[in-house]
Amino acid sequence: MPSSAANERQFQRFQSNRSRVSCPSRSTSDSPTDSPSVTTPNCDAVDEALAELQLQSQDHRSKDHLPRGSGLLNGRGRRTGWHVKSSKLALNTHNRIRNIVESLKIKPNPQKPMIPLSIGDPTTFGNLKAADETMKAVLHSLESAKFNGYAHTQGHEASRQAVAKYSAHQRPDGEIQNDEVILCSGCSSALEYCILALADRGQNVLIPRPGFCLYHTLAEGLDIEVRYYDLLPDQQWRADLVQLESLIDENTAALLINNPSNPCGSVFDEKHLRQLIAICERHYLPIIADEIYEHFVFPGSKHLAVSSLTTEVPVLSCGGLTKRFLVPGWRMGWIIVHDRKQRLGEAVRGLKNMCGRILGSNTIIQGALPEILSKTPQSYFDGVIDVLHSNATLAYKMLKQVQGLNPVMPNGAMYMMIGVSIERFPAFKDDTHFVQELVNEQSVFCLPGSCFEYPGYVRIVLTVPGLMIEEACARIAEFCDRHYKKDSQDIIEDGLLDENLVF
Description:
alpha/beta; disordered C terminus
């Protein structure tokens, strides 16, 4: 019998007994009762016992209906008020870009239309659109009515097979098995699965600086330490190999490589990738490869999947439709497990277990994957690359002429990093302040390098229409010319001061 029911019956019996043996009226008289054969109960004791039973009955009836952690406890373990707590994971999860952007005091110049060079969504301006073949594939998937239900948590078999075929270049032999493909809800989800499958609390993951802030967001909430290895702007953003290797210890779980890079737009050559692989071989480190931009490479550069260069080091490669097919909102990403020596052990099982958290990705898009990946023509992709490369070239040429700026020409992806000699702009205390006032004066919005753990730079996106990137760069130049502080050497070079003039 449930305890609450037992208390109810005990309470009812107590009430019945109390009605048969009532308490005498309280008085100052000490005289005995008329019937000495009947023992008169103590009224105070009766009232206290009755009250206690009532409390117990109420506690048992209400305890199951109170949410955990919803109140403070008194001495009897009973909640006395509302006190809802957040989980540690939620409180420790921060999006650095969001935090910095929301702290800016922005009021764009009403005389100039806003040009947001901050948004890493290639569909924002409408000049870059998904291919007709991509759109039709989804329509066919929807009309078939075959993909309205749940799929295998790793994804439909035919969909994984299509990804395996599409990604064959990631291995020298081109042989990727369906079971080595995991479909995810976007590349962000793929990265989360990889980090959580390889790293535990108290361990650390090596990530690039500057780098995409989501890596830090995904790790910090679970008490996984992030250790930044530096990328060198004067070496086309190659990693500082000595500094990187110095970060590794017995608690290092993985090296994360983002190639091509967000925010740098760099593309590592084969020699540098082999140097990174050699470090991982020496320290028995798996690689998480964020290769979402693997096909966004400009003329003159070539992307090599890191997994194509090693059979010794296991690689988890993360990709998706997001960028190349210009459909980031469709949330279709994937992980390809490259572990030909089977060194990941239980981590592969853990990775597949992660798929059960949301029971698989969008099935309508899964159904469209075979058609999307096989029927979208190369001419479509070439057209997108032409736009990005043209914008990058134009922006680099214009900004390279601006005093106080040092743009680094990208070789791929959708971004450019621009160095800001902040000491030559005394009106601004740092890159964040520089960005804020650029919006307020010129209505051009870039992201400060601080969003990527790299102060002293700003990042622009290259997906805007050509005329807009030209206008934005002209406004940036005007802004810098207005606030740049020249020193004596600048004045000499401008021909405004005789070099031999003595002050």
